[in-house]
Amino acid sequence: MASVPPDSRTTRWLRRRPNDPPTQPQPRQSTQPQPYVEPSRRPRFDRPPPAGNDWYGAPPGYAGPPPVEDRPRYPWPPAEPRGPFPPAPPQRPVPPARGRRSRRERVGRRPRRRLLRRIVSVLAALAVVQVLLVLSLRWVDPPTTAFMAANPDGAIQESVPVEHVSRNFLAAVIAHEDAALPYRSGAFDWNVMWGRAQAHIFGDEDPAGSTIPQQVAKNVFLNQELSAWRKVVEAGLAVEMAAFVDDRRMLELYANYAQFGPTIYGVCAAGWYYFDSPPAELSEAQAVQLVGLLPSPGHVQRAPGGGMDFEVDDGMGWLSRSHVINAQNRVPAHLDRLGFQPVEDSGVEGLASDQEPSDDDCSTPPEEVIELIAAEGTA
To answer: How would DSSP label each residue in 134-177?
Structure first.
């Protein structure tokens, strides 16, 4: 192989300089352990000196800081401490989240919520019971009413099916109290009711009386208080009763629970008390006298041998007598013109004399009526 001479540029660093001293062989270090010599400490200026260190001694002639009393005082008050620099940007107030309340507020509202829930539950239960009572009137004859329970002298009453009531009496009741009963949808006419409300507000005379559904609602559930609040409740109950009870049953309830004397309720007790007659055999004249007592039934008593006597102890017999005379002047004309047609339109067909006898037809006088006549001495 051909040899290549070395490049002088690559071997230059291996050459010895002419001025370099010759290298001397270094003596071999001993393998014996050498004693440890602590290096000298130099003062450090990056941290405070330890306690008792005198590296930072006071300069010559320094006697310590002057006492507080000898220190110079500034003519201005010291500057107040400043906040961080740069100051933080102003924070916008965060509005409280809606619906969030403190624990104290939530705990304080719990009793009120519980009370409100209880009140709503009680009202709902009362509403359900009231609806059930009204609905039961379609089939059940109540043993007593609010009017009867409020009478301090007691009440004498016995129910009788409307089929066993004289058509003279039923026709007289419709003509005297509510001629539109068979032909009206609902408990009353709203325009007439609005006129009555305005008359009551302005103190005028009532242009129209209560309808039969209103009177049934009043007799069964309310009292004789004359107030706007009672009228409102009466109207609400009448609307509800008209929705659940048909005209035939409404007429039956009215005939059995209307007041005809201080302690006489219903046509059964009234027929036997005044005329010694069952309700199925009442004549037109007797029926007109009975319906004449409906506006003011508390100022009359049985006359000796039968009939009506308005000479009562309270001196108010003239009021009941005036209503009876008013009925005698008005009702017979309606009966002559319409006959028993309104009764049939209300759902009561046939005559009372055509009905088969039954245990509840009031064909015999109630025992309480017999005892009352004997106590008054008007047999």
So the answer is: HHHTTT---S--HHHHT-TT--EE----GGGS-HHHHHHHHHHH
